[in-house]
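Page 47, continued from p. 46.
Same chain as before, 239 aa.
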Amino acid sequence: MAVGTAAAKSAVELKFGQVGVASVSLRDVDPRVLLAELAVRIAAAPNLFQRAPLILDLSRLPDLPDAEQTRALLDAARSAGMLPVGLSYGTAENERLAQMLNLPLFAKFRIAPEPAGVAAPPPPTQAAAPAATGLHHVKPVRSGQQVYARGRDLTVAAAVGNGAEVIADGSIHVYGRLSGRALAGAQGDTAARIYCQDFQAELVSIAGHYRVLEDVPANLRGQAVQVWLDGERLLMERL
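Result:
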């Protein structure tokens, strides 16, 4: 009986991809405080945060919580309506805590404080040349779709719909309506910017600093807008 040379198809396909994961940086180990804070944010933007994957960032706590305290915090996040998927803050102690809880440790995951404020943009700074030619996407990005420009800028010559996501390690340019999420500087480039012709974004983020539509001044909605970082503040203004 002849044996075929073609490899059998695998039953699964395992890949690592760019996914939208929220993070909460804890300054208090009281689960009631976490529940109340998350409930406010979910109520303000339920389409973004309800049942969203969540990472607990323990780096700002004076002392690492024990397993029982951490379980209570995880339960509080679930009660608020989010789905905890792991811990961040890569120390040996936190690695042991993650193992005790049977959770992954996102050692390189970083989150910045929630920014506020709108101001005039600073003078342009000299940025390093991109590693590759920017990615040019000509079709609309529809709900549930994601376009990621790894190691470069992203230009979308169409609309980004509700529930869609555009991500770039560099800057993002949208020559149409931006109604979904735009995440620039995905690998930490604080010089990245976001530009769009019609700002209706559910969320914009640069190097982890984010704002949701509910926090954006009404006079910027529907306008041509640029978004940039000033220190740890995410700022925006009309073009």
